[in-house]
Design brief:
By secondary structure, the chain is α+β, with helices and mostly antiparallel strands. The protein contains 5 helices and 7 strands, in the order ααβββααββαββ.
Length: 197
Amino acid sequence: MKAKRNSIFRVAAVAMLCSASSLITSCNSDTHSDNADTTLTDTMNTMNVDSVMADTVNAAGLNPASKPAKKGVAMVSEPIPEETGEIKLDKDKVYNYAEVPPVFPGGQSALDDYIKDNIKYPSSAMESGIEGKVSVQFIVDENGHVYGTKVLSKPLGYGIEEEAMKVVNNMPQWTPGKVKGKSVKTYRVLPISFTLQ
């Protein structure tokens, strides 16, 4: 049974490796920011992940002499934006969708590289065979600074959520999103998949 499950994960990982990554934003809602968590959760529940990027992640703390080391793979993608019509400018609002979305410095490929270079698959999670996706929500403010991080997905434990949030909290300054030509605060959701091979 375990061998069959490992084979399925390897086939899924190979299929995902063949995809290209894309930058996607969550859809806008005209509701107040009080309802933003519900809107983002609903968006995450119905999102269509178009493609993913995968790379092997460092697995510090394993002793290869005592047992074969497993490889951890981190994949990143974001939900696709939906057409929402005209967006009204409100300087105090945190937008779910901006006319011009925030951009990681260097674009999507630089974000992929940042995740690849900075995510460390927790050794306790690898040793326990823990896999899954962590969806981290954060806000990019008018100056491009990242704050307000929180995990939207069901907890996997073993330090996986903490690692994902640490990497998001340490991201460099983004180019902020814009509405009507003005920089605005914008929610972003970054799903990061942790897969063993």
